[in-house]
Design goal:
This protein has 18 helices and twelve strands. By secondary structure, the chain is α/β, with parallel strands linked by helices. A hairpin with a 3-residue loop joins β6 and β7. Bound molecules: glutamic acid.
Length: 457
């Protein structure tokens, strides 16, 4: 059996790192099993869905390293949902209800006051044909509910009915259908809620594994019954914990917080995001993986924690440094070129600076320092000026290599008597204008003698 997974965002905003977690779980699972990945846009809500968000989602997924085998839009598949609706109606499993929201709220209040669970009491099942016709004549349109199989023979006498599945992330899960209202599948205006189209698509596209956030556990209990009602075998389910902010708030597409596009603009590398999104909230250590194959080796659905996973965006900064430190020139080359870093010294330069970067674009600043010197000359004490002049006068002739720095500073130490910080801090400042940065032994051959002499105070 070929594993087929899907990621099913609604295109109502830009995807964030929590959505990336779901997408990556599915992508890595498909990778591990030689499977396929379907991107399905849940855009039945035509008011809130926008093509611009779907396009941005696809762009973000590609940028992260996820390349869907198929892309589907629910808005283009209404006819198969209509066929499923007819099938459920024919089986007597989808029934029309005419209550308004106010009437339903009143009923819930009454049930609560009688200490009954505030679920729908299936009053519409008792409507006669005349009563229905009267509602229609009044101009009311029905919404349609799925009859949950939580009764023996009389739906008006629901009883505890447990639906269980072995969740590949959470282990055995159970939902009691007696605790739920019959879900509305079709609204008064004929539009679909998420519940039915999702099942119909999962059947039609041959989805074998559904991995999604654990806010969908209850839906799964209901959807398993809809699969069965449509004569289909339910897929394997897995529900992962959700990423939350450090203060415990959920991430939302609407707030735009921690969106993939925003993180990209901040210079966070895709593999930093992917490493965190997948490994945080699991018993695995969060390590910076350099590519998807490496991340797939660390990913195991069974290691995901049961509780929500608070995360601190500062972790991304740390991961980003590690990802950049291990990034080959081949992987960085195009983007470096876009920042003006190119030519036959570009690789040597990249290898010298990559271990000192928070963001790839910061390499451009070091490139300017190497080529043109520090942006501003530091004010120097008279003693340091004197020291630096002596030091620069001792610069050896070219050719220079990685040993030049050692030989030069040994000669400076010998001649000036300075050592340690006293020796190195003024040299580093004069050469780079900064107090820390890449190894000067690596930078010196890139700078060259002429450019070094131009830095003599
Ligand atoms: N559109 C749903 C969501 O974003 C999909 C849930 C699912 O994977 O079935 O929550």
């Amino acid at each position: 059996m070929t594993v087929i997974v899907r990621f099913a965002p609604s295109p109502t905003g830009y995807i964030h790192i929590g959505n990336a977690r779901t997408a990556l779980f599915n992508w890595l699972y498909a990778m591990q099993n030689g499977g396929q990945f379907v991107l399905r846009f849940d855009d039945t809500d035509v008011e809130r869905s926008r093509q611009e968000y779907a396009d941005a989602t696809l762009y973000d997924l590609h940028w992260l390293g996820i390349f869907p085998d198929q892309v589907k839009y629910q808005s283009q598949r209404f006819d198969i949902y209509a066929a499923a609706v007819e099938k459920l109606k024919a089986k007597g499993l989808l029934y029309p209800c005419y209550e308004t929201e106010e009437e339903l709220e009143l009923r819930r209040k009454i049930r609560r006051s009688r200490k009954l669970p505030p679920v729908y009491g299936r009053e519409a099942l008792s409507l006669t044909e005349e009563e229905k016709a009267a509602f229609e004549a009044e101009g009311r349109k029905p919404h349609w509910r799925f009859l949950l199989p939580n009764y023996a023979t009389d739906p008006l006498k629901p009883r505890s009915t447990k639906v269980s599945w072995v969740d590949i992330i959470k282990g055995k899960q159970t939902v009691d259908l007696a605790s739920l209202s019959d879900p509305v599948l079709v609204r008064e205006d004929g539009t679909y809620l998420y519940t039915l189209p999702s099942v119909v698509d999962d059947i039609d596209l041959g989805i074998t594994h559904v991995m999604r956030g654990d806010d969908h556990v209850t839906n799964t209990g209901v959807q398993i019954e809809i699969f069965k009602a449509l004569d289909a075998e339910p897929p394997v389910f897995g529900h992962h914990n959700l990423l939350t902010t450090a203060s415990g708030e959920g991430l939302s597409k609407r707030s735009g917080a921690l969106s993939i596009g925003g993180l990209r603009e901040d210079g966070v590398e895709p593999m930093s995001i992917a490493s965190l999104a997948v490994l945080h909230g699991t018993s695995e250590n969060v390590v910076a993986c350099h590519n998807m194959a490496e991340l797939a080796q660390h990913f195991d659905p069974a290691t995901v924690s049961k509780s929500s996973a608070k995360f601190d965006p500062d972790e991304l900064v740390t991961l980003n440094k590690t990802v950049l430190h291990g990034m080959s020139f081949a992987d960085a080359q195009d983007r470096l070129g876009a920042h003006g870093v190119s030519g036959d010294r570009a690789e040597e330069f990249w290898l010298a600076v990559r271990g000192n970067l928070d963001r790839l674009q910061d390499a451009a600043g070091w490139w300017r320092i190497v080529r043109n010197g520090p942006a501003e000359a530091e004010p120097l004490s008279e003693e340091d000026t004197e020291f630096l002049r002596t030091a620069f006068d001792l610069l050896p002739d070219e050719p220079w290599d990685k040993n030049t720095w050692k030989a030069w500073t040994a000669a400076v130490r010998e001649s000036t008597g300075r050592k340690g910080k006293q020796l190195f801090t003024p040299l580093r400042r004069a050469i780079t204008g900064r107090d820390s940065g890449p190894e000067l032994a690596d930078l010196l051959p890139l700078i060259g003698r002429e450019s070094m002499l131009a830095r003599r105070p």
